[in-house]
Batch of 2 targets.
Target 1
Amino acid sequence: MTADLSLIRSSFAAVQPHGSQVTAYFYDHLFAHHPGVRPLFATHLDEQRDRLWAALGALVVNLENTDTLTGMLQNLGRRHAGYGALAEHYPAVGASLIATLRHYAGDAWTPAAEESWAAVYDVISSTMIEAGKAASN
Ligand code: HEM
């Protein structure tokens, strides 16, 4: 992974003080750019909203614990196959995730931070997609 993990951590930490605005921005961005994924989500997203960000936080903490990280991602990927998440949805979610981080990370957002997030999301999504495919076979 060509990611600088200290940049991942510092940019993620810079976003945290913005609280629930962050997840609201993320879902607004996702549904505005990819309205086709809206029906996969429950009508009332409120309780659900913060779970994605909490999961990201847990992933960020475990970036160097490869076995733990892989296990978490495989479980998430299997559950997502059940939610109807398809491989082609992952780039859409990744783009909204990066747009959200860029919006809230302030000075902590740099080209190197963006590159690092792109590399990390690549690992996250490919592990989830593989586990999801294996689960639906
Ligand atoms: C970084 C990648 C992602 C992370 C960390 C993530 C995290 C989560 C978490 C923690 C939940 C709560 C339920 C659970 O733990 O199983 C969830 C639910 C969900 N996610 Fe994701 N997710 C990701 C990518 C995606 C993608 C690509 C899609 C495809 C559209 C998606 C669609 C959903 C749906 C439909 C639900 C259920 C929501 C509901 O019940 O209304 N997620 N996600």
Note: The helical segments are 5-15, 20-33, 46-61, 66-82, 89-104, 111-136.
Target 2
Amino acid sequence: MPFHYPKEVVPGEYTIAPEAPPGSHDEKSPPMRELYPNRDDYLHVSPERYFSGAHAQREWDGLWTRTWTCAGRASDIPETGNWFKYDLGRESILVVRTEADRIEAFYNVCQHRGNQLVHGDFGKSERFTCSFHGWQWKINGQTNLITDVSTFKPEVLKGRLNLPSVRCETWAGFVFVNMDDEAPPLADFLAEIPHFMQSYQMEQMHVVKDVVIELDANWKVVLEAFLESYHLQETHPQAKPFVDEVHYQLDFFRNGHGRLHTAIGYPSPRCEDRSTVAPGLAYMLAEAGVDPAAYEGRAMQARDALLAAKRVPDNPYGIDYSGFSDSQVTDDWNYSIFPNMTFNTHPEGVLVMRFLPHPTDPEKSYYHVWVISRKLKGNVRPPAYMGVEPHVDISGETRPARRYNSKLDNELGEVLDQDISNVEGVQRGLHSRAFRFNRYSEQEQRILQLHAEIDRYLSAAPPQ
Ligand SMILES: [Fe+2]
């Protein structure tokens, strides 16, 4: 029987907690139109945005070099001299712990002939030495050695030879950088995000999975696959028995950020059978300490059972859930930080994704998946859909290596594998003579917001 989207449901306007007081986590935002009066201009967008070199150049000049983006985790540089490399498009940035409580960022480029100073992802150094002629900088970016300095005419070495710095600030254990000296501080840029996400205490979580995959699709094609739940019914049919992707809440925050709340442990109205407990739901119950064999409730009551099991002080996860609303305890709150990050937040752990443009080809991008986890009791694992393999140590004792996986052998788990299975077909289809423009439903409003906010940057950028 074909499913008819209920007439009475306004997509994104379902409010799980209508009584949510102002400022509380679940509070529904005003509709998108209040922040973007021109939202309807984005109901169609041109395919060129996803493959044109000229558009990619406008994004580089107007967006990437002017906004805050996440460079990495502060926990990856625990000691003075620890550094990590952050490649954003054609630029490479070196993020260093220069003192016990100080993190700084520099352009990763030798001031002699332009060689990159570090090539690996992570490291620890007392000096940064160029592998070409041995020029050397201290970890705080000050020039330490110019090899055979007397052989340079004085005017050749005039001006600043320290490593040029990049603005760098930290929030929730994530290090952000910004190449624009005129941009507002990170806290202003993040707007409502820190307030709503504070209960997760992500600064206390540790990395348990770190995978990067190069895809033959523009970064926005890949990101957009994670900004709506409209695709669940076709792309993730196995999730229908325990994800209600019809009644959900969409929130729109300032500066392009947003979120999508989806109830978990509750069958979709698209399911004909909403009583029988499906295997995926049984797994969730078991994990929360509810024996599925003894569970007598219907599938539609499982979310309540999950909530009750987690609210017990001695719950199997060893987590104090008292700082979380009921919907945070059981459901998926998918936050997005403009321009290129999403967070599927749960008290136990967070699935973090970053969508990075390719240095030269707008039809390629890097899809970066991190899973960060709280310290969990016993054998409990982060939520199964995050794809953390059973053999991976999630205690926080060892930091798993970053994996550069192929798209076919991506090791992302079933759900994310399904997500990325569509994006390269989309990228190819965008070129078709028979495809004129994307058309977005009201279920895909966060994509309208993405394009509207990108255009705010592009129109603010002076012509190059
Ligand atoms: Fe998906």
Note: The mean pLDDT is 95.
